[in-house]
Amino acid sequence: MTDEKSPISAARARAIFAPWKAVPAIVLAVSGGPDSIALMWLAARWRARLKRGPRLIAVTVDHGLRKEAAREARDVKHLARKLGMEHRTVRWQGTKPKTGVAAAAREARYRLLATAARASGAAHVATAHTRDDQAETLLMRLLRGSGVAGLAAMAADTEREGVRLLRPLLEISKAELIATLESAGIAFADDPTNRDFSFTRPRLRALMPVLAEEGADARTLARLASRLARANAAVEMLADGAERYLALTDRGASLGGYDTRAFAALPEEVRLRLLRRAIDRHGHEGPAELGKVEALLAGIDRAVAEGQSGLKQTLAGAAISLSRGRILIKPAPPRRRRPA
Asked: Which of 82, 208, 298, 337 has the fewest CB atoms below 10 angstroms from its CB?
């Protein structure tokens, strides 16, 4: 176990970034705060010790929400040049929403980072999410009633916006990153929104010391997220196998959907995932909400148990019906627009 206040060594930095030493280029998301500045500093040290390695491009997203953001972007650019790294600033243009600003800004950030990556010839984007962020994400999703997949929290390597999204610092604490920067004499910005209690994450962050006293510190919560991710991967594999099994054994597969008897024999969690996959595949209104899929499955189970037929429902742009012993799922007709 590492000292939470010790700087990250060069050897540890090499181990952190080693999985990606053969990729052509990596975009580093650098806002100017301690976590992302540490990401840039560590990545630069790692790259400097390689004979051949990926191009590193630091990208700062200016959301246009704080007047200090432009100055922070210039400071990041100055440090990137000192480290021998390319830098670009991209801006979130257009009218900003009056509600849900944090979620909209996050979506815009990933979209802009992916666009910058493609423009730079990079297929990988690295963010500076830490173990502390992972613990907070788990708590946020727990409060929202997320399922197993949601409680698995953030993955170290996943696909988003057509690029590979990397989170190489997920097992490192924020305290270690700050200690690293202080040891190197590297300055960083302080974002006041991180202490703005009108947002959920800062409120949860303020609760972390109390939770830690009860044993639920960031390390424990991040370990729980990791274990849930492992369980989620196992259930996904079971769902994959069940989908193949139903396709091979279902004589009416050409009609689409699932045979109700074969479907009913599967574990509930697997049935939920298969139903949600089919709805997302055929629907045209975005991912189906877990709670609504759970309610739909309960309705299907009741109808099958009572021998009813003719159940019809739409969800997320998909039409779901129960007819002649089959659950049928297909695209729903577009909604009619009401006249102005």
From this structure: 337
